[in-house]
Inverse folding.
């Protein structure tokens, strides 16, 4: 019996390991391939990225997937980071779109969540429901109102056309309200008795209680917008303003090596956040787990 | 100053109402300006013939939309994709969560690995996806070892399979976390009683755990359904503006009308989708109420 159980556990472990390899493989391959010089990329993947063949360099007649480059080279990174300003510019575009969205969305949400969590009322609960419905709407629906407003206000093709809809997206409000509802009322009553005014209750009592929640929500929002595609391609016609998440897919065949390096550079900020905040992230996801309060 | 005096003179209830509203105001104003008001205008646009003459035509725009071949193709592709991707996303995520509940070594590492695709931007990964699934790609080389014919993964009816793989790769971790949280909420005593009674692991899963999981099961289903509408992102990055027929999604349709700036079609498509989503979300609420009560009560 115990032997059987042991075998069973081994089978489960192997199963988990197979899944783990599947989940990690694309990321790992991207990273290792980013250290291949362009000539090696051409030789290995020439058949996939046609056009890379120009220049008469050698191309294998079969695809040649490699984990470890024959010759480790940082030349792709040097080109991507120092020699071709395009990539760096697009990376910067991503930063100046995403950072304001994260800060503004979490900021506005903390006010709104405080209101939803502390003050009840029929109008409030209806409004909260509207927020939830909006949160669940796909971009196909929400991008049309976003577009109209940017058009009316002349924001179209400026980065504010992307930042404003992001700043007011209701996801953070929803999640933060759930966290704030769990703050004991007695804590707030006590602060009021101590003579705190409304702002002090919010700033000194309420917010410190949700520090980890704010962090996990900020991570979730960052991961989502760092990956954005739908909003920029509709609201920013000017290719020069596109974030790297859009631009990476338009890279020319001849620059595949640089694209790999840029792809890795683009992963670094979310990767660092993930390393540091995995527990907070898991907690955030767990609390998103029910639509009801 | 005068305003402050008037505020102080209010009774507690009214004061609460005022401050409650003030806290909400910044967010609500933004949501109203960028989402709610323009959506009202869109509903209006969907009912008129064009923004200049503004004659009411009621459902004509919708009729035209439903007769539009591109819309039909996009809607059916999106539905087809969801019909396959959503059940897979739910079942596989539950499997992963159960796997991590078993007593195996390196559990927390496995959780990290399964969750890691969440942090990888899709744009960073499409290159390797192309290497894998291209006609001359790795997968074809691999199946050629077994004597199978090459498949043009991205430009044949198989292309949905490629995108489903990418979708699952990206979304399973999130769903798995939701299931893990729900599994840890199944009352231990109940499982112990089942153990004492000599219940098999399968019986425990179906008779005990799944009953407690049903609200989460439902939530994950709806969440995956909504995420499956967002799969345009992956498709766009893999195949660009004009994918092979099987991957022409609703968002492609929307993008093309954006380019043509056909407000009537845009508006009626957005309204149609919004109505479909409201029906889905409504079903979620009703179902969650019913199932939730079953367990709580």
């Amino acid at each position: 019996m115990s032997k059987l159980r042991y075998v069973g556990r081994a089978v489960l472990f192997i199963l988990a390991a197979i899944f783990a390899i599947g989940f990690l493989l694309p990321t790992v391959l991207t990273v290792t391939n980013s250290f291949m010089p362009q000539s090696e990329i051409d030789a290995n993947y020439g058949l996939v990225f046609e056009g890379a063949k120009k220049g008469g360099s050698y191309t294998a007649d079969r695809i040649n997937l490699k984990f470890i480059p024959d010759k480790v080279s940082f030349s792709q990174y040097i080109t991507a980071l120092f020699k071709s300003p395009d990539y760096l510019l697009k990376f910067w575009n991503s930063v100046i779109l995403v950072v304001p969205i994260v800060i503004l969305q979490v900021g506005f949400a903390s006010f709104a969540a405080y209101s939803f969590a502390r003050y009840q009322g029929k109008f409030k609960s209806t409004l909260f429901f509207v927020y939830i419905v909006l949160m669940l709407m796909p971009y196909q629906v929400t991008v049309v109102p976003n577009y109209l407003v940017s058009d009316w206000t002349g924001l179209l093709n400026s980065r504010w056309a992307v930042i404003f809809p992001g700043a007011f997206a209701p996801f953070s409000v929803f999640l933060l309200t759930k966290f704030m509802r769990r703050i004991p009322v007695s804590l707030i009553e006590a602060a009021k008795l101590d003579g705190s005014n409304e702002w002090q209750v919010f700033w000194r009592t309420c917010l410190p209680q949700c520090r980890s929640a704010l962090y996990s929500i900020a991570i979730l929002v960052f991961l989502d917008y760092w990956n954005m595609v739908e909003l920029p391609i509709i609201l920013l016609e000017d290719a020069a303003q596109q974030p790297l998440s859009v631009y990476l897919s338009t890279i020319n065949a001849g620059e595949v090596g640089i694209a790999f390096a840029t792809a890795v550079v683009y992963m670094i900020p979310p990767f660092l956040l993930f390393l540091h905040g995995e527990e907070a992230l898991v907690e955030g996801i767990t609390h998103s787990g029910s639509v009801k309060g | 100053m005068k305003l402050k005096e008037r505020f102080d003179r209010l009774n507690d209830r009214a004061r609460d109402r005022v401050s409650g509203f003030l806290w909400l105001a910044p967010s609500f104003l933004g949501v109203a300006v960028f989402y709610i008001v323009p959506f009202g205008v869109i509903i209006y646009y969907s009912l008129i013939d064009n923004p200049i003459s503004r004659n009411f035509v009621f459902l004509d725009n919708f009729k035209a939309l439903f007769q539009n071949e591109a819309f039909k193709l996009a809607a059916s592709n999106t539905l087809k994709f969801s019909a396959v991707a959503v059940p897979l996303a739910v079942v596989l995520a539950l499997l992963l969560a159960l796997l991590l509940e078993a007593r195996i070594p390196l559990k927390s590492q496995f959780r990290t690995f399964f969750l890691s695709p969440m942090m990888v931007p899709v744009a960073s990964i499409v290159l390797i996806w192309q290497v894998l699934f291209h006609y001359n790609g790795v997968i074809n080389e691999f199946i050629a070892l077994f004597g199978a014919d090459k498949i043009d993964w991205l430009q044949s009816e198989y292309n949905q399979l490629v995108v489903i793989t990418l979708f699952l790769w990206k979304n399973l971790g999130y769903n798995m976390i939701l299931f893990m949280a729900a599994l840890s909420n199944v009352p231990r005593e109940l499982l112990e009683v089942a153990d004492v009674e000599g219940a098999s692991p399968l019986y425990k899963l179906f008779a005990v755990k799944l009953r407690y999981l049903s609200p989460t099961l439902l939530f994950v289903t709806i969440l995956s359904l909504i995420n499956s509408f967002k799969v345009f992102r992956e498709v766009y990055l893999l195949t660009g503006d004009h994918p092979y027929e099987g991957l022409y999604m609703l968002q492609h349709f929307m993008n093309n009308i954006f380019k043509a700036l056909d407000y009537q079609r845009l508006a009626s498509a957005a309204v149609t989708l919004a109505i479909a989503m409201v029906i889905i979300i409504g079903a979620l609420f009703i179902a969650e109420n019913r199932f939730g009560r079953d367990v709580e009560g």
Q: What stands out?
A: The domain at 80-287 of chain A is CATH 1.10.3720.10 (MetI-like fold). Residues 51-57 of chain A have pLDDT under 50 and may be disordered. Chain A has two domains: 2-75, 80-287.
